Amino acid sequence: MYGGGNTFEAMKATALVDEDPIKLAEFEARIERGEKIEPSDWMPQLYRKQLIRMIEQHAHSEIIGALPEGTWITRAPGFKRKLALMAKVQDEVGHAQLLYGAAETLGKSREDMIQDLINGKSKYSNIFNYPAFTWADSCFISWLVDAGAIVNQVANSKGSYGPYCRALERICAEESFHLKYGHHCVIHLATGTKKQREMMQAAVNRWWAPMMHFFGPSDKISVHSEILMKWKVKMASNDECRQQFLDMYVPKIWELGLTIPDDKLMKNEATGQWEYTEPDWDEFKRVINGDGPCNKERLAVRRKAEERGRWVREALLAPKAKYVTPLA
Amino acid sequence: MNVEALKDLLYKMADDQLVLGHRNSEWTGFGPLLEEDIAFSSMAQDKVGQSWQLYKILNELGENDPDTVAFMRNADQFHNCQFVELPNGEYDFSLIRHFLFDTAELLRFQFLSESSFEPLALLAKKIKGETKYHSMHANIWVKQLGSATEESVSRLQTSLNEALPYALGIFEESKFEDDLITSGIFKGEAVLKEAWMGEITKILNKSSLSLPDLTSIEPITGGRNGIHSEHLQPMLDEMSEVFKVDPTAEW
Lengths: 328, 251
Known about the structure:
With 328 residues, chain A is an all-alpha fold. Chain A has helices at 21-32, 45-70, 79-104, 110-118, 135-156, 162-190, 194-213, 226-230, 238-255, 281-291, 295-317, and strands at 266-268, 273-275.
């Protein structure tokens, strides 16, 4: 699960000065023609750096995203939900595996990426810094956060870097099942008993602001980089993704009799655009910079998992370890 | 056919699968490497799914529906062995439990695929196909970590020593043992234990781990009769937390 709001490397005016102009022109012409760039192809340093950063942030978001939902695996009500949620969260961890693999093709090892996550150098999707208090919160995440992620990831799957695009295609196929599962859970709560309906509405109220933040700062205030669009690293603007999400899901939320905590939310039929109260971007910045309700806890859990597993990883690298023939 | 004997067998197996599946799922997000996180989650899904199928057979024999049976009973009504309810501990303990339990589990369902009770024989054929991969996974890791570094060998050996009294509790016999054997439903725990000892010895011999003399170990039993460690009830409370908000609701 991943939204916009990526933090990119600050662009320097000199960033492209050292690049070979002929190779750069060929590279840009290939992208313009819709060709995919593969790991062994020539690419500008800046392209490599931005892609590593973006794929890495995506991978981190998958493993950190497994935490708020993972806590509900052990409490899921009934066999059907328990099995489905286990499979869903397992998929998310699998996505991280795929994405770290894609990022490694650009020259940064999984170990270095995970280290940068733990030491706070790399970011992950801001939404996972909020707690999932109830079962309904986990249902909101499965349906709507995954829906938001699909909007973003479908756009990025048409980007220029081959390994990332291929990973995203697989990921989106799986995410579409998550969305069905999440929607099914939300329908049951929103149309269930009084307690269930209240639980679901409270979750929508809690999660709406983080959901609006999910797509990243408004285009008006975000650092816009034409070159990232030109190189097809970034495929849609934050506002475009947000609008698409609102257009697809607000009617579905309303259809279930749930309300959205924003009086100004409405579609302007003349412009075809959704109008809404601008989310609190100061809060977004505060949370993404480490001061959210769960930032410390999420990283502490990840750090502990890494520390507890170190001896296993070391044992796998031990020279005297017996080689065991792969099973398949 | 002694239906009570059959139900007793089904309950203890279903409870084992559910409880260990639940424990395995607790590794989600915390594995020592992503691949193991995913592997434990797969095994969790298989085991919980298998317990669901076993509870369905019980339902056909007149017991309550699977969700009610799994989510509404208290610890003293569970028949799983105590081994599966113990907390995951570190990866070494989880791995050793996975190895010791799943070796027995695979053999059990291999035996049961020839059970005279057809619904169980059919299900056992399916389960043994899934469990084969769990067992292969455990074996490969025990061989690898059990011969890699000083730390990994020592951790696995300590966990093995701690786990064995509980592992022997898997084979706690029920009062229906003779009924099950004479009616051809199940070959019995004694035969299973014998086969299990052979299998674990074979794998451990391919590592630097040593198997203590099993005859000198006192098994930790009671689970099959509803006597459990202090760990089961909190686990069940967590499992049923949402379900019990409204057991009649559709979730």
